[in-house]
Amino acid sequence: MTKHYITGLHIRTLILMWGLLLALQTAHAQKAEARLSFSIRNATLEEFVKRLENSTGFSFIYGEEVKINRRITLNVEQKTLKEILNLAFANEPVSYQISGKHILLQKKKQKPASRKFTISGYVTDEASSETLIGANILESRQRQGTTTNPYGFYSLTLPEGETELAFSYLGYETQRYNIALEKDTLINIRMRDNNQLEEVVIVSNKTEAGVTATQMGAIEIPMAQIKNTPSILGEADVMKTIQLMPGVQAGVEGSAGLYVRGGGPDQNLILLDGVPVYNVDHLFGFFSVFTPEAVKKVTLFKSSFPARFGGRLSSVVDVRTNDGDMKKYHGTLSVGLLASKIQLEGPIIKDRTSFNISGRRSYLDLIAKPFMPKDDKTSYYFYDINAKINHKFSDRSRLFLNFYNGKDHYAYKYKSDFTYHSGADPNISEVNNFNEDQLSLDWGNTIVSGRWNYIFNQKLFCNTTVAYNKYQMNTRSNTFARTTQSGTSSENNYQSHYFSGIRDWSYQMDFDYSPVPTHDIKFGLSYQRHNFHPEVSTSKIQEKEGGKLEKDTLYNSISNSAVRAHEFSAYIEDNFEWGSRLRINIGAHLSMFNVQKKSYFSVQPRISARYQLNGNVAFKASYTKMSQYIHLLSSTPIAMPTDLWVPVTSEIKPMQAHQYSIGSYYTGIRGWEFSVEAYYKDMRNVVEYKDGVSFFGSSSGWEKKVEMGKGRSMGIEFMLQRTIGKTTGWLSYTLAKSDRQFAKGSINQGVRFPYKYDRRHNINLVVNHKFNNRIDIGASWMFATGGTSTIPEEVTGALRPGEDYVRQEDYIEHRNNFRLPPSHRLNIGVNFNKKTKHGMRTWNISVYNAYNAMNPTLVYSNGNSGYGDYVKNQEDGNVYYRYTPRKRKITKLTILPCIPSITYTYKF
After folding, report:
1. Are 747 and 691 in contact (CB under 8 A)?
2. Residue 771: HSE in the Cβ half-sphere, 13 Å Cα cutoff
3. CA 23 remoteness from chain centre
4. Which intervals of the chain form a coiled coil (predicted)?
5. Which pLDDT value is given to residue 566?
6. Are strands 775-784 and 788-789 parallel, antiparallel or unpaired?
7. Which of 164, 302, 459, 576 is the most buried (most CB within 10 A)?
């Protein structure tokens, strides 16, 4: 038996080795707890491991089964090794274990799938119960989120267990909730206004606009910005503010028209609570029909249109109105130089039923009436009425009733009464003539709609809309003449009535379905019954002789009888995430338009994608196809009530557009944002009047007066904006080109020519600054190169044998041959606010066109004098007298010089 003896030397050796081992373990443990700075970008697992081994001295051990789902990007300061590993492998199927100088990586064991439940509800203002559109909901542990839809509803599906939710909305305090999610849960959130953010003016929200949204070319314009943007006579205007966005033009100087990315005014789908508005103009286009006090939110889409919208080529303006305060009564009274406005809202049944009503009326007719001649009376006014009732049946069911009526009215009345003597005897030859002329012209919209919101379950939301929409123009004239001589009289009375318009009945159902947080599915269908009345006129003639009726004739003249059309549409769109950086919105809009026993079908695919490079930078791309089935006939550069809406026919096909866009977006600190978008739009079946033909109030045979062709529009848009702070605003620049081309032998001999509102450069600068709670100032400056116009540049003439007058002809080189001069304008407005016992008083002093730039509203040519000589024609041998071509004088007309204004507003 062998014995082993442990000598003192052996004991000392073992103790030394054990001490060294302990020291190494302690050293590695200290290394693991040491803090270091580490930065790596877009690295694979192998690259990350190698870089960390070089930085720490640790070695990694792992097998082929260990993989990561996405590349690793880290930029940390003074973090421990464990903290770095936790950040790198967060949301990855990788676990780690530190043993000495080694780090063992293993594939995470899959946990059994947990059950999932849905949290849903409405987000409202705590004080008024007004729904908040686009509020953000984020679950911090799962890093999943959503936003409220246009009715304030949200739905979010999450795994069972502890859940931490954050509800946020710009201008409101963030609300946080911790719950143990064990079943489907309804949570209605009432958010509190953040008084500390009084100095903040919000320029954009992020539901469908900005870096994180999938859509591009979408801009949300808050009412605070609209109310602070100076305009003509102090009238804040929705459409005028939209004109200051990149890619949008005003058309005629000072008008409220929209010309978006090379499109016409009829190519904009303008919605009031989901119902189309056909005429959005007051005062021949210089003001819009939207009263700012009635509006809650405005969203402009000009690029990647969501699939739920259809029927126009160029843009969608989605206007949503206030629902009404369910808690208390309050309102606004405003008095300006042009018009006065009043708005009232409050509960009918507290916490269940509310109302919101607003009205506006101009009073040029009342001011001018005392100064008009006794026998010559001319008047003009416009008004708007918005009313809304909001009733809450339960947390699942709500009803909204909307009403809008707006009208422009122009009237003219002239009387003359005179007596003269036709012979030598004044008792026999006295003749009395009495004449009276009356003319009235009115036009406007009436919209009535009912909307029902119903939550089928926590994941499925439905909105049903039934609406009636009417636009109509009426002209009435009456001419009366009476002649009295020698006790006998003769009378003539001529009456006429002319009207045109369009009436729609519509039914629509929209669904929001959120199966999981990474998918937001919208689908729906709609039906519209159109009744077009392009022109209907009647006239009546009465003649009396000696008080006896001699003639009474009624004439019915119908240039175009009523045209009925049926429009059906359906859509589906899915906004989903593909990985952690890519988000895609894909969908399709299907439509059918039936008119004159002919049906047109259209399948319109829509797709947009956003790649999130990091938290501040995103890239986007989109493709959209749109179809349009109606046209607006007009021959004037400003909006006129005589413009007529007509549908496509068996001869005139629907217009179509294909738009391609790319862009990049940056969101920085302190509210700074920058975006750049480039687009190309290809249009088919666009309509232009033939050479020498125009439309002047008659739609008879309009198909023969126009040609169908193609158009294209391209450009690049830059926008720099600051969204929060005492000083906010934006600077935008647009470089664009738009043209049209028609078949050879038709318009312009088949050669491309610039579109009427083709403006190469457009710059807009908007600045708002809040000095304190009592004084704030807003200013806007715009510059745009001139559009185009077709103007005769030269005149020629000929005197043929046997004639005693010269035949003159205008010479025009090509369609839209004249480039108008540039336009530029500065508007300034200052608000003086003061809190009173019962509310807030505001005086607004503004100046439109502050430095009196003489921008052209209209241009025309005159001066056709010339000189000539006799020229022998080589073909027929006759001698002609011809004018030598002479340049015509181009004259511009400016109707909007510097205009100061003052407005008083009281909120109570």
Report:
1. yes
2. 9
3. 70
4. none
5. 95
6. unpaired
7. 302
Q: How far apart are CA 304 and CA 61, in angstroms?
A: 48
d(CA 154, CA 145): 10
Q: Read off the pLDDT of each residue in 543-570 and give the average, rounded to a whole number.
A: 75
Specify whether 708 is located in the same domain as 751. yes
Are 85 and 137 members of one domain?
no
Q: In terms of pLDDT, which residue wins out, 689 or 860?
A: 689
Instruction: Please tell me the total count of domains within the chain.
Output: 3
Cβ-Cβ contacts under 8 Å for 259 (sequence gap 6 or more): 248, 249, 250, 251, 265, 314, 757
Q: Is 720 exposed, middle or buried (0-12, 13-18, 19+ CB in 10 A)?
A: middle
Same structural domain, 70 and 125 = no
* Same domain, residue pair 123 and 101: no
Q: pLDDT of 27-71, one tens digit each?
A: 455 556 778 888 888 888 888 888 888 888 788 888 888 888 888
The yes-or-no verdict on residue 108 having pLDDT over 90 is: no
Distance, in Å, from the CA atom of 154 to the CA atom of 188, rounded to the nearest integer, reads 9
> What is the chain's Cα-based Rg?
36
Residue 162 CB-density burial (10 A; 0-12 exposed, 13-18 middle, 19+ buried): exposed
For 342-358, how does the pLDDT look when each residue is reduced to its tens digit (9 = 90+)?
999 999 999 899 999 99
* Whether the predicted pLDDT of 8 surpasses 80: no
Among the three residues 197, 212, 245, which one is the final residue of a domain in this structure? Answer: 197
Which residues make Cβ contacts (< 8 Å) with residue 405, sequence separation at least 6? 384, 385, 444, 445, 446, 447
pLDDT digits (tens, 9 = 90+) for 859-886: 766 654 444 444 555 455 555 545 545 5
Output the pLDDT for position 667.
84
Distance CA 154, CA 134 (A): 9
Identify the domain containing residue 526 by its residue range: 330-907
Residues 182, 73 share a domain: no
Amino acid at 51: R
pLDDT of residue 164 exceeding 50: yes
Q: Dihedral, CA atoms, 519, 301, 322, 288, nearest 10 degrees? A: -170
- Helix (H), strand (E) at residue 32: helix 8-33
Same domain, 427 and 385: yes
Q: What is the pLDDT of residues 565-593, one digit of tens each?
A: 999 999 999 998 888 789 999 999 999 99
Confidence label for 196 from pLDDT (cuts 50, 70 and 90):
very low
- Residue in the structure block whose two tokens are 């946990």: 111
Q: Summarize the confidence of residues 445-473 as an average pLDDT.
A: 94
- 226 lies in a domain? no
Tokens of 565: 């059309």
Are 822 and 760 in contact, with CB atoms under 8 Å apart? no
Q: Assess contact for 453 and 279: CB atoms under 8 A.
A: no
CA nearest 800: which of 881, 883, 885, 884?
A: 881
Residue 486's region, left for phi above 0, alpha for psi from -120 to 50, else beta, is: left
pTM over 0.85? The answer is no
On the question of pLDDT at 19 being above 60, the answer is no
- Mention every residue, 6+ apart, whose C-beta is less than 8 A from residue 374: none
- Residue 621 Cα distances to 315, 580, 662, 679, angstroms: 17, 17, 4, 10
- Inform me whether the pLDDT recorded for 821 exceeds 80: yes
Token code pair at residue 893 = 């007309």
CB 166 within 8 A of CB 189: no
335 & 190 share domain: no
Q: Are 714 and 679 in contact (CB under 8 A)?
A: yes
Question: Is it the case that residue 896 has pLDDT exceeding 90?
Answer: no
Residues whose CB falls within 8 Å of the CB of residue 658, separated by 6 or more in sequence, listed in order: 623, 624, 625, 681, 682
Please enumerate in sequence order all residues whose Cβ is within 8 A of that of 558, keeping only pairs 6 or more positions apart, or say none.
Answer: 535, 536, 537
> What pLDDT score does 111 carry?
57
Give the orientation angle of helix 45-56 with respect to helix 81-88, to 10 degrees.
Answer: 170
Angle between helices 8-33 and 81-88 (to 10 degrees): 50
